[in-house]
């Protein structure tokens, strides 16, 4: 698999920054930010690169060593386990369910530390929906929308839940709200109606 050169270059730059900043007490915030950025990139590479998976775990351990209540540490562990679930489920359905449960556990810890994070709310909703708990997922998608009205993904997922539950009027209201708040994706959102 060929990886985008910009992504690989960014990984190199963040690795270099981490090496320089690690032992500098006055630069610990920059060190932490670089660790977070690098780990996000490594999660994106996790599909084909086992080394990136090991580095991701090590970086999350380091974030939690620096701060046992690290929002980013727990959030990234959630993202990493969700990615592992996606990878495993491509190979065999239900194979990655344990990763899904672990992802939810880490996302819930991150949510306790920083309850107003749109990304974590969206991810908790996705995990619950994957686990076939749409009623529990609903308020998390709604929260993600309330935190960011331009979150097309949250509208789409909530729309699908309403359709699956036979809540036709709620689904239509959700679609209208999405088109109003994310006008640049109106054409794609309109296609949702045509599929149901």
Structure in words:
- With 196 residues, the chain is mainly α.
- The protein is built from ten helices and no strands.
- The protein starts with a helix and ends with a helix.
- The mean pLDDT is 90.
Low-confidence stretches: none
How much helix, percentage-wise, in residues? over 70%
Tally of contiguous helical segments: 10
Q: What is the CA-atom radius of gyration, in angstroms?
A: 19 Å
The best one-word shape is elongated
Strand portion: under 5%
How much is the average pLDDT?
Answer: 90
Number of strands: 0
End-to-end distance: 36 Å
| Structure classification | mainly alpha
Order of helices and strands: HHHHHHHHHH
The major pleated sheet works out as: none
Brief overview:
With 196 residues, the chain is an all-alpha fold. It contains 10 helices and no strands.
Primary descriptors:
mainly alpha; 10 helices; 0% strand; elongated
List the helices and strands and how they pair.
Elements: H1 5-21, H2 28-44, H3 50-66, H4 71-91, H5 97-113, H6 118-130, H7 134-147, H8 152-164, H9 168-181, H10 186-195
Helix pairs in contact: 1-2, 2-3, 2-4, 3-4, 4-5, 5-6, 6-7, 7-8, 8-9, 9-10
